[in-house]
Specification:
It contains 16 helices and 22 strands. It is an alpha/beta fold and about 475 residues long. The protein has a 7-stranded mixed sheet, with helices on both faces. The chain has a 6-stranded mixed sheet with strand order 9-8-7-10-11-21, with helices on both faces. Strand 15 (about 370), helix 13 and strand 16 form a beta-alpha-beta unit. The structure holds nicotinamide-adenine-dinucleotide. Nicotinamide-adenine-dinucleotide binds near residues 175, 178, 210, 217 and 383. Keywords: Oxidoreductase.
Length: about 475
């Protein structure tokens, strides 16, 4: 772990095992923090914020962030191998959102923005009894940020929290997901060994105990929680943060819709639905509800079956594989329970629907296509977080929009039509944070990302993402 500038074991000396989800073998062990370790980390972050120039020295912060980028980039290959081993992510995905994309910009873009961000501005003067009152608006860091990370895209999420939080002058206590600690402890080591980031500015606390995350949320020395994870834990954090009025940034679950219009070229478009089982569907923005025009539903299911039977699956080290293992056995069993319930409620399993045959070890589940799904079924409403796609028929564009919005979630979405105009106007009616039209890519360190409704509160990345980590102050002066 990294606590107050030192690379350290847990105070108790305890360690816990890091398991490879593809093989179930023990990769090694990690420091298992208790409340004493967390207390030291929070104290260090508080002190670094209150007593150093980190919060105010823009130039220094930009330099440190670029050092951190260079340090991580110099170990990209080792980080890639580690992510495949501890996350079970297909190596192919590490050349996309799992590693390559965030590595390219998550630290560099915020570092560059330090010199472009509007840190202060003037409001028009107010004349009060003949005296001009001047008013300045300042953006200041929130303070100590507790960052809590899930296991699915751990480096991506860590980098996209650290970059903007540090660029805006905050200090951080970062708690990785228990299942995937090593990418974060690597960053901790690189911070200590290769950057001038002062002691206490970043602290990395690994623990197998979820109470450590909960303790971060209730501690009065922590000003803000930046959380990515499940909607249920997001709710718990919101409630637990209330007594200390925590600033909250929550990136939560999704049940996003891919709308295929009746004029779309199905042969071209339907294969894109296979993206729902990239990384075994453990992607918050996965398009897990496929909305198809009723008039072409039957034919589309046949075409889809062909696509879904042939999705490259299995060993995450195989460069062709898209669908690797789930992160642990609990998650695999959870996915299977969702599928069994869908069957009981009258849905039809067209492809897959069981743990992947041929794998005695590892938490693999088959790419699963489910048809004859109604919007009332649980499988159409619950986030499965597995390689499972439900196909739902709709009557017309209005009906498609209605179904897409008939969800507690609102994270992502996609629309396909021969008419870009039509697809864009449908996209504007979907209540979600990020939308793709005809395969268009929305991702980037400069692109605000987050959810409507129960998919979250606030935005990360982009200028909005920098704002997330700031407080606003007005000074009136004569
Ligand atoms: P999770 O909510 O179970 O855990 C996430 C993190 O929170 C872990 O580090 C965990 O230890 C910690 N935690 C658990 N209970 C806590 C508590 N009471 N207080 C504080 N911290 C606590 O999520 P997960 O299973 O690791 O990740 C999968 C979920 O994350 C999915 O629902 C997925 O959609 C969501 N997710 C969302 C986004 C997004 O940006 N919207 C991105 C990735 C994942």
């Amino acid at each position: 772990m990294l606590i107050d500038g030192g690379l350290t074991e847990a105070l108790s000396g305890a360690r816990y095992e890091n398991i490879n989800p593809a093989t179930e073998s023990v990769l090694g062990t990690t420091a298992d923090a208790g409340t004493g370790d967390l207390d030291a980390a929070i104290a260090a972050a508080r002190r670094a914020f209150d007593e150093t120039t980190w919060a105010t020295d823009h130039e220094f912060r930009a330099r440190c962030l670029l050092q951190l980028h260079d340090a991580i980039a110099s170990e990209e290959d080792q980080l890639r191998a580690e992510l495949v081993a501890e996350v079970g992510t297909p190596v192919k995905v590490t050349y996309m959102g799992q590693l390559r994309w965030p590595l390219a910009e998550a630290f560099r873009w915020p570092a560059q923005m330090i010199s472009n961000f509007e840190w202060e501005r003037c409001l028009p003067d107010r004349d009060i009894k003949g005296v001009a009152h001047h008013r300045d608006v300042f953006k200041e860091p929130v303070g100590v940020v507790g960052a809590i990370i899930p296991w699915n895209y751990p480096f991506e999420i860590t980098a996209n929290k650290l970059g903007p939080a540090l660029a805006t002058g905050n200090t951080v206590v970062l708690k990785p997901a228990p299942d995937t600690p090593w990418n974060a402890t690597r960053i901790g080591r690189l911070i200590a060994e290769c950057t001038d980031i002062p002691a206490g500015v970043v602290n990395i606390v690994t623990s197998s105990d979820r109470r450590i995350g909960a303790a971060l949320v209730t501690d009065p020395r922590v000003d803000m929680i930046s959380f990515t994870g499940s909607t249920q834990v997001g709710r718990d954090i919101m409630a637990a943060g209330a007594p200390t009025l925590k600033r909250l940034f929550l990136e939560l679950g999704g049940k996003s819709a891919m709308i295929v219009c009746d004029d779309a070229d199905f042969a071209k478009v339907l294969p894109a639905s296979g993206a729902a089982c990239i990384h075994a569907g453990q992607t918050c923005t996965s398009l897990t509800r496929l909305l198809l025009p009723r008039s072409r539903y039957g034919a589309a299911i046949e075409q889809l079956a062909d696509v879904w039977r042939n999705i490259p699956r299995g060993d995450p080290n195989d460069p062709k594989v898209l669908c690797g293992p789930l992160v642990n056995s609990v998650q695999r069993d959870r996915v299977d329970n969702h599928v069994r319930r869908a069957e009981q409620q009258g849905a039809r399993i067209v492809v897959g629907g069981k743990p992947m045959p041929g794998f005695d070890r590892g938490y693999f589940y088959e790419p699963t296509l489910i048809a004859d799904v109604t919007t009332a079924m649980d499988i159409a409403r619950d986030e499965v977080f597995g390689p499972v796609l439900v196909a739902i028929p709709y009557d017309d564009d209005d009906d498609a929009v209605r179904i897409a919005n008939d969800s507690i979630y609102g994270l992502a979405g996609a629309v396909y039509s021969e008419s870009t105009q039509r697809a864009k106007s449908i996209a504007r009616r979907v209540r979600a944070g990020v939308l793709s039209v005809n395969g268009g890519m929305w991702y980037g360190a400069d692109a605000p990302f987050g959810g409507f409704k129960s998919s979250g509160v606030g935005r990360q990345n982009g200028v909005e993402g920098l704002e997330t980590y700031t407080e606003t102050k007005v000074v009136g002066w004569v």
